Fold:
Amino acid sequence: MKVIQTALPGVLIIEANVFGDSRGFFTEVYHAERYREAGIELPFVQDNHSRSPRGVLRGLHFQRTRPQGKLVRVSRGLVYDVVVDINPQSATCGQYTAVELSDENHRQVWVPPGYAHGFCVLSDVADFQYKCTDFYFPEDEGGVLWNDPEIGIPWPVDNPLLSEKDKNNPLLQELLSL
Structure:
Protein backbone atom coordinates (compact mmCIF):
# COMPACT_ATOMS: atom_id res chain seq x y z
CA MET A 1 0.00 0.00 0.00
CA LYS A 2 1.30 3.43 -0.96
CA VAL A 3 0.27 6.48 1.08
CA ILE A 4 0.46 9.90 -0.57
CA GLN A 5 0.34 13.11 1.49
CA THR A 6 -1.69 15.95 -0.02
CA ALA A 7 -1.40 19.71 0.46
CA LEU A 8 -4.17 19.54 3.09
CA PRO A 9 -3.05 18.45 6.57
CA GLY A 10 -4.01 14.84 7.27
CA VAL A 11 -5.75 14.23 3.93
CA LEU A 12 -4.23 11.13 2.35
CA ILE A 13 -4.49 9.33 -0.98
CA ILE A 14 -4.05 5.60 -0.57
CA GLU A 15 -3.05 3.35 -3.44
CA ALA A 16 -3.79 -0.25 -2.56
CA ASN A 17 -1.75 -3.24 -3.62
CA VAL A 18 -3.70 -4.98 -6.36
CA PHE A 19 -2.93 -8.53 -7.43
CA GLY A 20 -4.43 -9.42 -10.78
CA ASP A 21 -4.29 -12.02 -13.51
CA SER A 22 -6.57 -13.36 -16.24
CA ARG A 23 -9.16 -14.33 -13.60
CA GLY A 24 -9.55 -10.84 -12.17
CA PHE A 25 -7.94 -9.17 -9.16
CA PHE A 26 -7.64 -9.19 -5.38
CA THR A 27 -7.02 -6.22 -3.10
CA GLU A 28 -7.38 -5.49 0.59
CA VAL A 29 -9.90 -2.70 1.00
CA TYR A 30 -9.10 -2.12 4.66
CA HIS A 31 -6.58 -3.54 7.14
CA ALA A 32 -6.66 -1.87 10.57
CA GLU A 33 -2.96 -2.27 11.35
CA ARG A 34 -1.74 -0.97 7.97
CA TYR A 35 -4.08 2.02 8.12
CA ARG A 36 -3.04 2.74 11.71
CA GLU A 37 0.60 2.80 10.53
CA ALA A 38 -0.48 5.36 7.90
CA GLY A 39 -1.93 7.57 10.66
CA ILE A 40 -5.60 6.57 10.35
CA GLU A 41 -6.26 5.58 13.93
CA LEU A 42 -9.89 6.50 14.59
CA PRO A 43 -12.35 3.60 14.78
CA PHE A 44 -14.94 3.24 12.05
CA VAL A 45 -18.57 2.92 13.17
CA GLN A 46 -20.60 3.12 9.95
CA ASP A 47 -20.21 2.02 6.32
CA ASN A 48 -22.14 3.78 3.54
CA HIS A 49 -22.75 3.00 -0.12
CA SER A 50 -24.28 5.34 -2.71
CA ARG A 51 -24.99 4.73 -6.38
CA SER A 52 -25.32 7.65 -8.78
CA PRO A 53 -25.52 8.15 -12.55
CA ARG A 54 -23.25 10.33 -14.70
CA GLY A 55 -23.31 14.01 -13.83
CA VAL A 56 -24.52 13.70 -10.22
CA LEU A 57 -22.61 15.91 -7.82
CA ARG A 58 -22.94 15.24 -4.09
CA GLY A 59 -21.46 17.78 -1.71
CA LEU A 60 -19.76 19.58 -0.28
CA HIS A 61 -20.87 17.99 3.03
CA PHE A 62 -19.70 17.83 6.64
CA GLN A 63 -21.15 17.47 10.13
CA ARG A 64 -20.97 20.54 12.36
CA THR A 65 -20.48 19.29 15.94
CA ARG A 66 -19.85 15.57 15.38
CA PRO A 67 -17.40 15.61 12.45
CA GLN A 68 -16.84 12.37 10.61
CA GLY A 69 -13.59 11.04 9.29
CA LYS A 70 -14.24 9.21 6.02
CA LEU A 71 -12.27 6.58 4.14
CA VAL A 72 -13.75 6.81 0.63
CA ARG A 73 -13.43 4.64 -2.46
CA VAL A 74 -15.22 3.71 -5.67
CA SER A 75 -16.13 0.07 -6.29
CA ARG A 76 -17.71 0.71 -9.70
CA GLY A 77 -17.19 3.58 -12.11
CA LEU A 78 -15.24 6.84 -11.92
CA VAL A 79 -15.67 9.93 -9.75
CA TYR A 80 -13.91 13.23 -9.23
CA ASP A 81 -13.47 13.39 -5.46
CA VAL A 82 -12.89 16.67 -3.59
CA VAL A 83 -11.89 17.55 -0.03
CA VAL A 84 -12.07 21.18 1.20
CA ASP A 85 -10.46 22.61 4.33
CA ILE A 86 -13.20 24.53 6.18
CA ASN A 87 -11.29 25.13 9.43
CA PRO A 88 -10.93 28.91 9.92
CA GLN A 89 -7.86 28.30 12.15
CA SER A 90 -6.05 26.39 9.40
CA ALA A 91 -3.43 27.89 7.11
CA THR A 92 -5.09 25.98 4.24
CA CYS A 93 -8.70 27.07 4.97
CA GLY A 94 -10.58 27.41 1.68
CA GLN A 95 -8.13 25.20 -0.22
CA TYR A 96 -9.04 21.87 -1.73
CA THR A 97 -7.51 18.68 -3.01
CA ALA A 98 -9.06 16.59 -5.77
CA VAL A 99 -8.40 13.12 -7.13
CA GLU A 100 -10.07 10.69 -9.51
CA LEU A 101 -11.21 7.51 -7.81
CA SER A 102 -12.25 4.49 -9.86
CA ASP A 103 -12.74 0.76 -9.87
CA GLU A 104 -9.63 0.59 -12.04
CA ASN A 105 -7.16 2.64 -9.98
CA HIS A 106 -8.44 1.30 -6.61
CA ARG A 107 -7.45 4.56 -4.90
CA GLN A 108 -8.92 5.64 -1.60
CA VAL A 109 -8.96 9.03 0.11
CA TRP A 110 -8.78 9.56 3.85
CA VAL A 111 -10.83 12.62 4.79
CA PRO A 112 -10.08 13.50 8.44
CA PRO A 113 -12.86 14.88 10.65
CA GLY A 114 -13.50 18.57 10.08
CA TYR A 115 -13.22 18.75 6.28
CA ALA A 116 -16.00 19.21 3.71
CA HIS A 117 -16.26 16.47 1.11
CA GLY A 118 -17.97 15.93 -2.22
CA PHE A 119 -17.74 14.11 -5.53
CA CYS A 120 -19.18 14.07 -9.02
CA VAL A 121 -19.75 11.04 -11.22
CA LEU A 122 -17.83 10.84 -14.51
CA SER A 123 -18.88 7.33 -15.62
CA ASP A 124 -22.32 6.05 -16.63
CA VAL A 125 -22.85 4.95 -13.02
CA ALA A 126 -20.68 4.90 -9.91
CA ASP A 127 -20.84 3.00 -6.65
CA PHE A 128 -19.23 5.14 -3.96
CA GLN A 129 -18.43 3.51 -0.62
CA TYR A 130 -17.07 4.99 2.56
CA LYS A 131 -16.32 4.14 6.15
CA CYS A 132 -17.14 6.78 8.80
CA THR A 133 -15.67 7.48 12.23
CA ASP A 134 -18.96 8.79 13.63
CA PHE A 135 -22.62 8.20 12.92
CA TYR A 136 -24.61 10.39 10.56
CA PHE A 137 -26.89 12.88 12.31
CA PRO A 138 -29.20 14.73 9.85
CA GLU A 139 -29.68 17.65 12.26
CA ASP A 140 -25.90 18.14 12.43
CA GLU A 141 -25.31 18.22 8.68
CA GLY A 142 -23.65 21.22 7.07
CA GLY A 143 -22.54 22.10 3.58
CA VAL A 144 -20.60 24.49 1.40
CA LEU A 145 -21.78 25.56 -2.06
CA TRP A 146 -20.23 23.20 -4.62
CA ASN A 147 -19.20 26.02 -6.99
CA ASP A 148 -18.06 28.63 -4.46
CA PRO A 149 -15.86 30.92 -6.61
CA GLU A 150 -13.44 31.61 -3.73
CA ILE A 151 -12.64 27.91 -3.47
CA GLY A 152 -12.49 27.57 -7.28
CA ILE A 153 -12.89 23.82 -7.75
CA PRO A 154 -12.61 22.94 -11.48
CA TRP A 155 -15.47 20.43 -11.52
CA PRO A 156 -15.33 18.36 -14.72
CA VAL A 157 -19.12 18.64 -15.29
CA ASP A 158 -20.78 21.83 -16.51
CA ASN A 159 -24.34 21.31 -15.28
CA PRO A 160 -24.28 18.73 -12.50
CA LEU A 161 -27.37 17.05 -11.12
CA LEU A 162 -27.72 18.44 -7.59
CA SER A 163 -30.08 17.94 -4.66
CA GLU A 164 -32.10 21.00 -3.63
CA LYS A 165 -30.08 21.09 -0.42
CA ASP A 166 -26.76 21.16 -2.31
CA LYS A 167 -28.02 23.92 -4.63
CA ASN A 168 -28.66 26.10 -1.59
CA ASN A 169 -25.57 25.49 0.55
CA PRO A 170 -23.83 28.69 1.72
CA LEU A 171 -20.56 30.06 0.43
CA LEU A 172 -17.58 29.23 2.65
CA GLN A 173 -17.24 32.86 3.85
CA GLU A 174 -20.94 32.88 4.83
CA LEU A 175 -20.45 29.64 6.73
CA LEU A 176 -17.37 30.95 8.54
CA SER A 177 -19.15 34.17 9.58
CA LEU A 178 -21.99 32.30 11.36
About this structure: The mean pLDDT is 96. The longest strand covers residues 46-53.
